[in-house]
Amino acid sequence: MHDVDDAFGFVCAIVSRSNLELGFPDREDLREYLLGELWILSTRFDGSRGSRFSIWAKATLSKRVYDWLRAHSLGLA
Asked: What's the pTM value of the predicted model, to 2 decimals?
C-alpha cells in the first residue's frame, strides 16, 4: 500500500506503541480492525498533497486505536 511494504508489521507497531494492556483476543481484534482501516485509508489517500502515505496513515490509525477502545469499552463492538 503506497509506501507501506508490510501492512501487518505497520499495524503491529501501532498497536505496540499504544501501550494498551490487552489480552491476546483483543490485541488480535485491534490488529484486524486497524488492517481494515489501513486498507480504507489506502483507497482515500491523495499523494498530490505532498505527504507520504505512511506518515498520514500512522497518525490516523493512532486515533483509530482510541475509536476501537471506546467502542469496546461501551460494548458497541
From this structure: 0.89
Length of the chain: 77
**How confident is the model over 35-76, as pLDDT tens digits?**
999 999 999 998 888 889 999 999 999 999 999 999 988 666
Q: Which three cell numbers stand for residue 66?
A: 482510541
Evaluate whether 4 touches 47 at the Cβ level (below 8 Å). no
Alpha helices in the chain (DSSP H): 7-17, 24-44, 53-73
Query: Are 65 and 14 within 8 A, CB to CB?
Result: yes
d(CA 19, CA 65): 11
